[in-house]
Amino acid sequence: MPTLEGIDLTCIRGDRKLFSGVNFLLESGGLMQVQGPNGSGKTSLLRMLCGLASPAEGEIRWDGTQIRSLGGDYFGAMTYLGHLGGVKDDLTAIENLRISSALGGVDLDERKAHDALQHMGLGGRELLPAKVLSQGQRRRVTLARLLVCGTVLWILDEPLTALDTSAVRLVQGLIERHLEHGGMIVMTTHQEIEIAGAAIQRLQLT
């Protein structure tokens, strides 16, 4: 299985250095929780890991090779769920899931989309426009992608935002199964989440 490695990473925004000298190594079955106060660069680091931003210094390597030189070989192995979720108000839950999956390279038919949404507790709401869903339900639509993406590396920015207790348990189960099957996860969260049997490392940004 591949590894994800950060080597002496530095992030600069405007005239401010958010972090420097960040190093980590994530292996199969491992979860890395990125921690730190607001403004410490947590989301910026995740955006670097998924190729949406470049470090001012340092390298990010996937199985020993810089991600920028890998192109689709890396991006096809990774799923990024951002803090905002990207759910479109005028599309139904099924349409949102199918379109977001297609953008990630997954051709998802309506039956599989329905099953994923039902698993996430959205049974009966699949055909409703997202604008009538609660914030927690919209977040469940976003998280349903994890059931169908088929990627090794998940990069999750505050995945538990707006979720109730039952939804947090669902996400916990998704994470545990992914790691059990050799998957890898980088995530930020302000909420406590218990992950059974996982090799967890914590990366503290100040």
TrEMBL record:
Q: Which GO terms describe its biological process?
A: cytochrome complex assembly
Q: Name one Pfam family in it.
A: ABC_tran
Which molecular function terms from Gene Ontology are attached?
ATP binding; ATP hydrolysis activity; transmembrane transporter activity
Q: Which domain of life is it from?
A: Bacteria
Quote the Gene3D superfamilies the UniProt record gives: P-loop containing nucleotide triphosphate hydrolases
Check the record and name the PROSITE patterns matching this protein: ABC_TRANSPORTER_1 (PS00211), ABC_TRANSPORTER_2 (PS50893)
Q: What UniProt keywords are attached to this protein's entry?
A: ATP-binding, Cell membrane, Cytochrome c-type biogenesis, Membrane, Nucleotide-binding, Translocase, Transport
Domain ABC transporter, residue spans: 4-205
**What protein am I looking at?**
Heme exporter protein A
